[in-house]
Amino acid sequence: CPSSSGKPNHADILLVNLQYVSEVEIINDRTETPPPLASLNVSKLANKARTEKEEKLSQAYAISAGVSLEGQQLFQTIHKTIKDCKWQEKNIVVMEEVVIAPPYQVENCKGKEGSALSHVRKIVEKHFRDVESQKVMQRSQAQQTQKESSLSS
């Protein structure tokens, strides 16, 4: 298929698991030769696979080390912004400069005073503000649902 993004030299490729196909019906037979498939950047794909594997192993390590759910969520938030982020036992180490120890609050961010530490502190502050506003929104939605169900009774 031509690309849905409209980019030239790109195509949408649809994969179908044939184990779930019970019947195939040919609607019309094409006579022209399809355009050649684009070449794949194998090294780029290998790098992406390696990166994904490292991220999954990092998540598995955090779970096996007994890191709290809040710590795991904070790690994911930081990692979205700063890729140089890893676990060191239960501590989050960012850019080899900032260490965040449990319970993973702003005051638990330690490192040499400077732009790296202040940047990480801002990310941690924003993460917890977002988590809190999400909780408030969920509570208000639950209360609204409860009110509606009690009115309909």
TrEMBL record:
InterPro entries: AD (IPR047574), Lsm12-like (IPR039683), LSM12_ABD (IPR019181). Residues 38-132 form the AD domain. Pfam families: AD. It comes from the Eukaryota. Residues 134-153 are annotated as: Disordered. Residues 135-153 have a biased composition (Polar residues). This is LSM12 protein. It comes from Nothoprocta ornata.
